[in-house]
Amino acid sequence: MNTTDVLIVGAGPTGLTLACELARRGVAHELIDKLPQHNSASRAKTIQPRSLEIADDLGIAERIVDRGAIHLPTRHYRGPRILSEAVEAAIGVPSTPATPYPAPVWVAQPYVEAALRDRLAELGGEVNLGTEVVDLQQHPNFVTVTVTKDGRREEIRTRYVVGCDGGRSAVRELAGLRLTGTSYGRHRWYLGDVRITGLDRGAQHLWMNDGVLSLFPLPHTDIWQFQASIPADDKQPPAPTLAHYRKIFAERAGLPGVEITDPTWLSLYQINVAMVDRYRTDRVFLAGDAAHIHSPGGGQGMNTGIQDAYNLGWKLAAALRGTDDILESYAAERLPVARAVLDDSTARLHMVMRAAAANDGSAAQRQLTDEFTTGLTIAYPDSPLTDRAQLPKSGIRPGERAPDAICRDPETGHKTRLFDLFRGTHWTLLDFGGDAEPVKSADLRVYRITQRENGSGAIVDADGLARESYGVDEGELVLIRPDGYVATRTKSSADIERWIPA
């Protein structure tokens, strides 16, 4: 029998993020996936600003950005005639020092997964493919999971199991958890990865007459993602084939000189909106699509899963050190986010389809994304890990995302970002002239922030950007969790220690 501390089931973006989080904390884990080879289908194609901040913390943001594109325009057509071209979706938020990644990046899911796999390998981890969960038995202090690999049955004993295995999660079913929600049977789509010649790769090409047809060039590839809505009155749509996709293009677009070839992934997709009412049953947890599935409106699927894993990883590490009650905060924080995302993405789907019915492609694109979909507004004000007694009248509040700012390193004189200080597995205390000396924790790094260099080795906030981002007064202390959220703001270091797990 193999033994480990955490068994992660599913090696998509969610499972890979969790594995990286555990690996860099030295937590013994095993990551398995039932597929015999890594996913190559585009599926998701947008990584949002908050997920890019997570990638930054993991050290892979640059790899992802380099394989993606920002502010790709949409070219609207009626038949073969071009109507307009503009950047309308995934615009993001205004660029400020507090937000180093203001815009979503268009990038195919396989490249996000590849960056995470490479980082996992650098941290000493690996993915075990062709390994399928067939049974799961919970015990008071461990879980026994039976898997099949190469035709053999094996058992794994683990302290915790995390199901990151998608909408048809075996872990969810075996743990007795259920998805409940709504099936939108009239919202069905043909999806696929194909090659196309005769189209400019500098734009998304969109038709909204007689249904929606989108041809999206996946950046830094020669692949296009094909998306076409299926008429609501088509009770038995044909199976997805290259011939049928060519027929749809001919009927809805009719552009001469365009050829669709070499499909590598074709799918008929029906939109379902559902989630579990619990993220945990004893020693089994769910994350990503295993816990919630929703419409693609807003480009949230891959991102919500990454953020689930990022939230859970440091808490599992703390629990394995003896702080088990911290795990209760996972569902307390992430369930409300999932509900909000499901409601929002469903509303966007309906808005887009209404705009499509009115042949208003620009309105449909503009309604796909906004500040909410960036993930930057996610907050945990009601979390048990949030100091609700310390609510400032202005500035960043406990439970909110800790913003970035550009400061100066006192030793080199070079620019340094607050995110550079946060990067890693530790808690961070920003000391804006307060008294942090009594705070003792191996997991805590303390940085004194001053406005002028004074020889003390403090980070220099010469332009006042850090103070502006946080809205702090002189003498305040800001405690930031390992996942980049503010735990408390106070002027007393005695308030700090109780928020850091022993």
Automatic annotation (TrEMBL):
InterPro entries: FAD-bd, FAD/NAD-bd_sf, RIFMO-like, Thioredoxin-like_sf. The keyword Transit peptide does not apply. One of its GO terms (molecular function) is oxidoreductase activity, acting on paired donors, with incorporation or reduction of molecular oxygen, NAD(P)H as one donor, and incorporation of one atom of oxygen. Keywords: FAD, Flavoprotein. Residues 4-344 form the FAD-binding domain. The keyword Flavoprotein applies. Its cofactor is FAD. It comes from the Bacteria. Belongs to the PheA/TfdB FAD monooxygenase family. This is NAD(P)-binding protein.
